[in-house]
Amino acid sequence: MLQFKGWSATTAASLLAACSGWAAPDKRVDLVEFGRVVAMPDEPKAVTTAADELVRGTNGWDAVRGDDGVYTIGVEWDEPRELAEVNIEFRHAIADREQIKVQYWKDEPGGTEGAGTTGRKAKGRWLTPKTEWWAGDRDVSFSFLPGDHEATGGQADKTTRRTRRLRFICGKTHLPPVRYLRAYGPEPFATDTFDVRLDANSPLSPPVTVQIVNGYILSVVGNAQMTSAVMRDREMALQIRYLRGEADSPNRTRVILESMDEAGVQAVFYPAEVARRGQVRLTERRLVVERRGGKLPSAGAATTVPADN
User: Fold this and answer.
1) Residues 6 or more apart from 44 whose CB is under 8 A from it?
2) What's the whole-model pTM score?
3) How many structural domains compose the chain?
4) Which domain holds residue 79?
5) Nearest to 4 by CA among 145, 142, 134
6) Over the stretch 29-40, which tens digit does the pLDDT of each residue have?
7) Among residues 184, 208, 229, which one ends one of the domains?
């Protein structure tokens, strides 16, 4: 049974899909895949590491019970993300879905300085945003609304929240394991093929690992979404789903190439930049990346950029 509170253009498609029993392929990028699922108490650690990640069992993660008896679970990113919609899905159907709440963390000025100090607590506070929500039998989704009393600086109309931490408050009743956490930004994503070529004298010698942040590499067979691949020759075609938006977005997609035989030898390119210019050459790494089909309409001319900018 579908429950929802409020309608908007941004959620109409999701609601229609849930009501009709079908869902079109989701072309967005789930930003949770680039963070860590961790416990999120009222006073979180200033920084978490892989050692803090919750263990994902066969059925998912178990929410963490706090001293007050309330279960929570959250995600932390190394860098802030701009979020527009978030979702929590449990392994089995749940009751009282309206009790599920979402909060995001707001750092105090200077709150991230010295974050690496062992045992240091984060400086800031949890905020409960104004949202509209809808739910299926075992999941609850939230999209952020404008008009938050916390909004300042002329941003009262914002429908996104920028944060490094997000948590779901799940009440005091023990719930099934959490199967998925999801978080999406507001920007459109596109899929293009990029041809990567290493010059003969490039310091990056195959095999080269290819990792993507805030995007997906699509497999040749079945278009499976991957966050890494291996470049075994000096030329490789990469089909990439990436943010085609503003260059300063915290959700910007970047691709990192690193030599498997020589640690620390890296190159970084931004698919949106390549798409705008048609071709980008990383001079110090002797590497060329081209968008198949050329630059996007009205984009600037191809360019040569220094090093890995």
Assistant:
1) 74, 76, 105, 121, 122, 165
2) 0.82
3) 2
4) 3-184
5) 134
6) 999 999 999 999
7) 184
